[in-house]
Design brief:
- The complex is a heterotrimer.
- Chain A is α/β, with parallel strands linked by helices.
- Chain A contains 16 helices and eleven strands.
- In chain A, the strands form three sheets. In chain A, strands 2-1-7-8-9 form a five-stranded parallel β-sheet, sandwiched between helices.
- In chain A, helix 1 packs parallel to helix 12, helix 2 packs parallel to helix 16 and helix 6 runs parallel beside helix 7.
- The longest helix of chain A has 17 residues.
- The C terminus of chain A is likely disordered.
- Chain B is α+β, with helices and mostly antiparallel strands.
- A five-stranded antiparallel β-sheet of chain B has the order 3-2-1-4-5, with no helix packed on it.
- In chain B, a hairpin with a 4-residue loop joins strand 1 and strand 2.
- Chain B starts with a strand and ends with a helix.
- Chain C is of the alpha+beta class.
- In chain C, 29% of the residues lie in helices and 21% in strands.
- Chain C is built from nine helices and 13 strands.
- In chain C, strands 8-10-7-11-9-12-13 form a seven-stranded mixed β-sheet. Chain C has a four-stranded mixed β-sheet with strand order 1-6-4-5. Chain C has a two-stranded antiparallel ribbon with strand order 2-3.
- In chain C, 54% of the residues are buried.
- The N terminus of chain C is likely disordered.
- Classes of the chains: A alpha/beta, B alpha+beta, C alpha+beta.
- Chains A and B meet through helix 1, helix 2, helix 6, helix 7 and helix 10 of A and strand 1, strand 4, strand 5 and helix 1 of B.
């Protein structure tokens, strides 16, 4: 696969690892938060941490739309499917996410709710066209990357005058979340959690560009390196962050230049602006209410807004007690610091959101990194 | 994160704002509604069935050569040190 | 096969119409279906005898018996269909004991309204698979369920086989130091099925690897009777099957990611859908574990067989009380290869 395999080449990884070892100053540590689950996945999937010197640490951020969606919104989606009897179209990622009372869309489907797994918003439009007597709701989730496809579908529905299609909008914004993390007392005041630099989103940035991170780097005096999701991208961006820290710089740098520009995809931004507006506040699982951190559907498209078309009960859902997801999402704790990790909370039976998505820090720890000690016996050193 | 992959545009249907892309031997129809311009032979970043951005082959090559250069450094540095 | 009225050799035109409740009533319609479909295509002396059970003299040695229920959507997919799959699946389960399969039984659960022409396609494919494998279907049964209570057709097959003397193959026999081999590229079956699911629709020239592996196994156990474990990585894929063996044998495993064969189309489709080929189903591949001193010979024998051309050594068994399967990544790092959690669902993030 062109432009994929080249960025997974082992010989280049060894070269980059060598450069990182040479340039990381032995006297200090480098705590780098990779914002996106995509980075987390690459780090674990390829064993990137094993190639790093002991003073370079990755802190896994909240960049997984599945992990940050609060329980209440999933309860709402269940209500749409079960009480309002709509055909609920969802990406596969949401199927297993636990709602209140250990319910999930997968369980609702097993109990007879009409939950359809889709790959693209085009599929939801097709389902609406094929089922003119049913209400079809697109359970829209995701960051700035996934928002434009929702906007296109919504506009297409308006153009075609579909009366049985609407969107349950849960799109959220990354810059607001990064700001929230740095400003949270846990991160700001704690000597324990030092986030020295950020690896910035790759595919989100292909849409919004690198410019939105510039005020952030300036105000919070931390380097932001936009990084691709292939393992070599993560390593090169790590090297770039280390160089900035060594030089005392705090700039926005772009490692993912093959896709990300400073201004991003203007057409996509335009479509999003046309359909969506800022929500004054939105609850993030783990981070709580964050101002200006999400989008809602503009009044002009109210007819396609599931939140206006259907009566949805306000949720009284609570996050599970003793789940450390909030601290883990901020990088203040590691998955293994949580009492529930592997102890009632596993990917088979997740309690917290970080265990649900394979992008989540807990699931990645469990799946790829659990008990990382070498196996006993003569082969242990292999 | 957002799962997205670079794939090559192998045919276009501008009236439907659709394209068929190839990812290795896999072919898939996607929407190009989010792109201003696109041509056959372009590589585009595909996410949930939509092309999000065109990929720059020049920048990809430049990134790779920088990665190679990072690995070439040890010899350069060692040479520098021994000369000093 | 209850075929009281069916002692005739039945030739005739292809079937038309659809399955209805009378086909499962046990009356004349059932007998007619048996005669015009099952007996016609599966024809062999034991079946033709028309008794409720097939009666035969077993050969000397230990017998192996295995059963497998087949439920697949879509019923027809690139490289196979539910019928061939039902024959191959059970033959392989017998073969994974190191055994030579002798006979099969087949039970059909048909949904009312299922087109008889499609059923005939399935039965013809099953008959061809059984005949090619040299393992006759000697008894069977048919039931019909109401519309909406089935998925066209479900097929359960049972097989019986005999283990050659001196062969001792079992999932609990892997020992530290043993070598792990796989008989070819993984994930073809699962990806062929996924490519035909309506909501995913992508095109790739990948066919299911559905195949009967008993002849490959026969050549393997003949040349290398020291083989300790054989298993076909079907549902849950290579990763889940290796975890099962690791737990059964109470050992760990170290895989070498770069050594695991995966076809390019499978790799690309998995990238697109956010899936991992290690967890994708196979229907014509096997895992073999043997002592290190015979591994080269085993690999050569496997590669000499048409169904093992792509065989490779993919790792080794290690001592590990946790029974973890670990993998050295193409990058040189290491990671755990865990059990599959539920069904692998396509993802966008």
């Amino acid at each position: 696969m062109k432009y994929v395999d080249e960025f997974r080449a082992r010989d280049l990884a060894e070269g980059l690892a060598g450069a990182i070892r040479r340039e990381a100053a032995p006297g200090r540590s480098y705590n780098i938060m990779e914002f996106c689950g995509g980075h987390t996945h690459a780090i674990f999937r390829y064993g990137v941490q094993d190639l790093m010197p002991s003073n370079v640490h990755y802190i896994h951020g909240p960049g997984c739309p599945v992990c940050v969606l609060p329980i209440g919104r999933i309860d709402n989606a269940l209500e749409l499917a079960e009480r309002h009897k709509v055909i609920l179209c969802t990406y596969g990622d949401m199927m297993r996410v636990p709602a209140s009372g250990r319910r999930s869309l997968l369980k609702a489907k097993a109990d007879g709710a009409d939950v359809h797994m889709i790959y693209s918003t085009q599929d939801a439009l097709r389902i609406a066209a094929e089922n003119p007597t049913r209400q079809v709701v697109l359970f829209a989730i995701g960051f700035e990357t996934t928002t434009p496809p929702t906007a296109i579908a919504l506009k297409a529905a308006a153009d075609r005058g579909l009366t049985n299609f609407s969107v349950f909008c849960n799109h959220v914004l990354t810059p607001a979340a990064i700001k929230e993390i740095v400003e949270s007392p846990e991160v700001r005041d704690s000597a324990r959690v030092a986030i020295d630099a950020f690896l910035g989103p790759s595919h989100v940035s292909s849409v919004i560009g690198s410019a939105p991170y510039e005020p952030f780097a300036k105000v919070y005096r931390r380097p932001v390196v936009i990084a691709g999701f292939e393992p070599l991208d993560v390593m090169q961006a790590t090297l770039m962050a280390i160089r900035q820290l060594n030089d005392g710089r705090h700039e926005v740098e772009n490692q993912y230049v093959r896709v990300v520009t400073r201004e991003g995809n203007r057409k996509a931004q335009g479509v999003v602006d046309e359909v969506f507006e800022l929500r004054p506040s939105f609850a993030w699982r783990g981070l709580g209410e964050v101002a200006d951190s999400a989008l809602r559907i503009r009044a002009e498209f109210a007819a396609f807004d599931a939140e206006r078309r259907f009566e949805i009960s306000p949720s009284t859902a609570r996050e599970p007690k003793s789940c450390e997801c909030p601290s883990i999402l901020r990088g203040a704790k590691k998955p293994t610091d949580c009492k529930l990790f592997g102890n009632g909370c596993t990917p088979d039976n997740p309690i917290g959101s970080c265990m649900v998505s394979s992008e989540g820090a807990c699931a990645a720890y469990w799946t790829y990194g659990r008990f990382r000690q070498p196996a006993s016996g003569s082969e242990a050193a292999a | 994160m957002c799962l997205a992959l670079p794939a090559e545009v192998i045919s276009l249907d501008l009236a439907r704002q659709a394209a068929v892309v190839a990812l290795g031997p896999v072919r898939k129809e996607i929407s190009i509604a989010l792109l201003d311009e696109v041509a056959i032979g372009d590589f585009v970043l595909v996410h949930v069935g939509y092309a999000l951005h065109r990929l720059s082959p020049e920048e990809a090559e430049r990134t790779l050569s920088m990665m190679r250069a990072a690995g070439d450094c040890p010899e350069a540095e060692l040479a520098g040190e021994s000369a000093a | 096969m209850t075929a009281h009225d069916a002692r005739f050799s039945a030739a005739g035109a292809p079937l038309t119409g659809a399955v209805d409740m009378t086909h499962g009533s046990g009356g004349r319609a059932t007998a007619e279906l048996v005669r015009s479909l099952f007996l016609k295509h599966f024809d062999n002396p034991l079946l033709r005898a028309g008794n409720d059970g097939a009666c035969f003299q077993p050969p000397a040695g230990r017998l192996v018996m295995s059963t497998d229920a087949h439920v697949v959507s879509p019923l027809f997919f690139p490289g196979g269909d539910i019928g061939a799959l039902a024959v191959h699946g059970t033959i392989n389960d017998i073969a994974m004991a190191g055994a030579r399969p002798l006979y099969l039984s087949a039970a059909f659960i048909l949904e009312q309204g299922f087109p008889l022409a499609e059923l005939e396609r399935v039965v013809v494919s099953m008959a061809a698979a059984a005949s090619a494998a040299g393992v006759p279907i000697v008894t069977g049964d048919t039931k019909v369920v109401e519309r909406g209570k089935g998925d066209g057709v479900f097929i359960t097959t049972t097989g019986i086989g005999v283990v050659p003397d001196g062969v001792e193959v079992s999932g609990d026999r892997a020992r530290p130091g043993d070598v792990i081999l796989v008989s070819g590229p993984i994930g073809d079956h699962g990806v062929a099925i996924l490519s035909k699911r309506e909501n995913l629709a992508f095109e790739v020239e990948i066919c299911s690897d559905s195949a009967a592996l008993h002849r490959l196994v026969a050549s393997m156990v003949e040349a290398v009777p020291e083989i300790r474990v054989l298993r076909d990585p079907t549902r849950g894929g290579l990763a889940t099957t290796l975890n099962e063996i690791a737990q059964q044998s109470r050992v760990g495993m170290r895989l070498e990611e770069a050594a695991i064969p995966v076809n390019e189309g499978v790799r690309a489709a998995c990238e697109l859908l956010g899936l991992d080929p290690l967890y994708i189903a196979n229907e014509g591949k096997l895992i073999a574990i043997c002592p290190p001193d015979v591994a080269a010979r085993l690999l050569a024998v496997m590669r000499a067989h048409p169904l093992g051309l792509g065989s490779a050594v993919i790792g080794e068994v290690v001592g590990d009380p946790n029974a973890f399967v670990q993998m050295r990544t193409v990058f040189g790092g290491s990671r755990i290869v865990d059990w599959l959690n539920g069904e692998q669902l396509p993802r966008i993030c």
